[in-house]
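Quick sanity check, Cell wall biogenesis glycosyltransferase:
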Amino acid sequence: MADFYQNGIITTLHNLTERHLADLEADLLRFSKQRPLGLLLPSLYSELEGDALPKIIANLKTVPYLSEIVIGLDRADQGQYQSALAFFDELPQHHRVLWNDGPRLTALDAELKALDLAPKEMGKGRNVWYCMGYILASGKAESIALHDCDIVTYTSELLARLIYPVANPLFNYEFCKGYYARINNGKLKGRVNRLLVTPLIRAMKKVLGDNDYLDYMDSYRYALAGEFSFRRDVLSDIRIPSDWGLEIGVLSEMHRNYAHNRLCQVDIARVYDHKHQDMSLDDQQAGLSKMSIDICKALFRKLATQGQILTPETFRSIKATYYRIALDFVETYRNDAIMNGLYVDIHEEEVAVEMFTKNIMDAGDLFLNQPMEIPFIPSWNRVQSAVPDILERLYQAVEADFQEFSR
């Protein structure tokens, strides 16, 4: 059972009573009559062949309150897209699959690229961005949840708890972030969040002084969770990164666009696990190494937009302060793991901290040496201003793919 402590400057919604799923779904079904509910699923084709996504779909088949499910499909040829249509056809809810590699959507992408309005790299951010555009175009959902397709411990309770805060008409939340404990096979996981994000934010607070944004980020219990929900009006003006900084970028945009009392986080699962990235100690373009650099750059960029001056000396101070705090966290989490009968490899933890320490400096160098880098995908408001009929054409392209290949 969770505690009821409110830490930080956003609301935390706990799991205090293990409320029965049927009660949650009865509420959500009632809410959906007033506020239609949707789900966004960014997926690789390879995930259709894994163990997690079939289980997710089996759970979603029983969910009674969703008006729309939008699936973004990456890395799929025509045959694989048709297989995906058959795979998702089990869903009783209205659903569409965006074939991001298909000729219709790639033609739209090329048109936006010519105007410098398209995502600059492949990945989850690009996938989510096009799905958000489709949701705006379809108009079928007012509140939407987003979660990954590799959650091996998935249950429909996760979705119900995730979407509830933005579905309940009595609540005024525009955005909700999911959180949970990362445990797998008797081991404590979530290393990037535990040993990079939290100690880095604490280090920057110490070096840079009082800062509302850092207090805000420090309020999230799992800043890197890929599960969040939002009201549809959030989608028009949000600018998201296309790299591993997606989750940090989304939180930063919520801080820019909304008051703290319109944002919350919710406990969505007692047990959570998904696929794990390699550490990639020798390759900064892969795995946790690339992830850590992208995350650091996302944090540095946000601070710079607030007028914070960052210099090589600043980054050296942040690095040294981070290293000491992170090593203390290694001991803290080891003790927490032992208390709960879990295992933590101290050597691997400290190796990770050393890699993150180096990558903080490298991310700082990249930030300073690329002052004209534009990391965000443009907002859909801006894209519509340049191409007024873009959402209608995106919707028609997805529908045309469905009509042509679902027969």
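Posting the structure with no commentary besides this: The first strand starts at residue 11 and ends at 13.
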